[in-house]
Amino acid sequence: MPRPPGVGREEVLERIRRIHRTKGRHYHRVFNDLLAELGLEERVHLEPLLAVFRGVRPKLSLFPGAGELLAALRPRYRLGLITSGMRAVQENKLRLLGIAGAFERVVFSGGLPENKPGQLPFRRLLEAMGVQAERAAYVGDNPHMDFKGANELGMLTVRVRNPAFDGAAVPPGHDARVRVAGVAEIRSLFLN
Predict the structure, then answer these.
(1) Cβ contacts of residue 108 below 8 Å, gap of 6+?
(2) Residue 181 CB-density burial (10 A; 0-12 exposed, 13-18 middle, 19+ buried)
(3) How many Cβ atoms from other residues are within 10 Å of residue 137's Cβ?
(4) What is the pLDDT along the chain (192 residues), one digit of tens a residue?
(5) Sign of CA dihedral 175, 154, 145, 140
(6) Residue 172: is it exposed, middle or buried by C-beta count within 10 angstroms (0-12/13-18/19+)?
(7) What are the phi and psi torsion angles at 135 (to 5°)?
């Protein structure tokens, strides 16, 4: 995507950072907003911009011990995943993290009519796996996106501490029923 005259790389990055700060890092229209700010037509520039974004190979890592935890859980539990964002980007992340094969089912909620925190992604995963909500647990780290729909359906919800959300004001019903400090506590909760 060509930059408009007079707009440098650092300015584009700062605009993206500002959009994330004001609308949250899980906001899914960052590039739409960026193009609007730069005065570029979305219908012309959005797909090429997304193609570049999808091709990025960032250095990603799991929470320490998460890969081992998934391996330990897999023989005892049926594992599913709900991930928001663009499907191609999320599939790439799963591949880069080396965990795509850890899950029986993956719901890419960014392409659904209702994304997290709504109920639809959770219902889709439960239906795909043939599991009743009362017999399922959902583990996440973002109180703004991860637990509301799962709570409403009656799932056990577990929030792993993420410093990014320390001190966040969370509306009633949006936080997990159980909070843990890290992967070791999840291991204790589900494997002991």
Answers:
(1) 83, 84, 85, 87, 90, 91
(2) exposed
(3) 16
(4) 455 666 787 888 888 888 888 887 667 788 899 999 988 898 998 888 887 777 666 678 888 899 999 999 999 999 999 998 778 878 888 988 999 999 999 999 988 899 999 999 999 999 999 999 999 999 999 998 999 999 999 999 999 998 888 888 999 999 999 999 999 999 999 998
(5) positive
(6) exposed
(7) -105, 15
> Which domains, and CATH codes, for the chain?
9-54 (no CATH), 66-191 (3.40.50.1000)
For the record, the structure tokens of 66 come out as: 């998460």
Residue type, 28: H
Q: What is the DSSP-derived secondary structure letter of residue 157?
A: E
In 10 A of CB 71, how many CB atoms? 11
The residue type of 18 is R
